[in-house]
Amino acid sequence: MMNTISPIQQPAQAVNSKKWTLHRHLVCDTGYAALGFGTVCGITGMKRVKFPQKMKVHKISAYLAGITSFLHFGFVKGLDKKLTVK
Fold first, then answer.
1. What per-residue string of b and e applies to 40-62 under the rule 16 or more CB within 10 Å gives b?
2. What is the CA radius of gyration of the chain?
3. pLDDT truncated to tens, each residue of the chain (86 aa)?
4. Rounded to an integer, what distance in angstroms lies between the CA atom of residue 1 and that of residue 31?
């Protein structure tokens, strides 16, 4: 009689690695978005830069920079909770 060999599957590790990868991508993406919107806000806030709708672009980019900064901070704190050993 022949014993069959089946591969060992660890679905918990696969799910955790997918969540880890998604979380890491969210942290990176929101960080870059906050940096980009903050840069746009800073450039449009300078006196030398003149174009129509300057204040509208400046305000919208400031709001988006703030929102993405808070999201980034939240994702980082969530990642810290996952990595902290209790």
1. bbeebeeeeeeeeeeeebbeebb
2. 22
3. 566 666 655 454 555 777 778 888 999 999 999 999 999 999 999 989 898 999 999 999 999 999 999 999 998 888 777 777 66
4. 59
Extract the tokens encoding 45: 């806030």
What distance in Å separates the CA atoms of residue 20 and residue 26, rounded to the nearest whole number? 10
Helix (H, G, I), strand (E, B), or coil: what is residue 51? coil
CA–CA distance, 63 with 58 (Å, rounded to integer):
9
CB atoms within 10 A of CB 20: 13
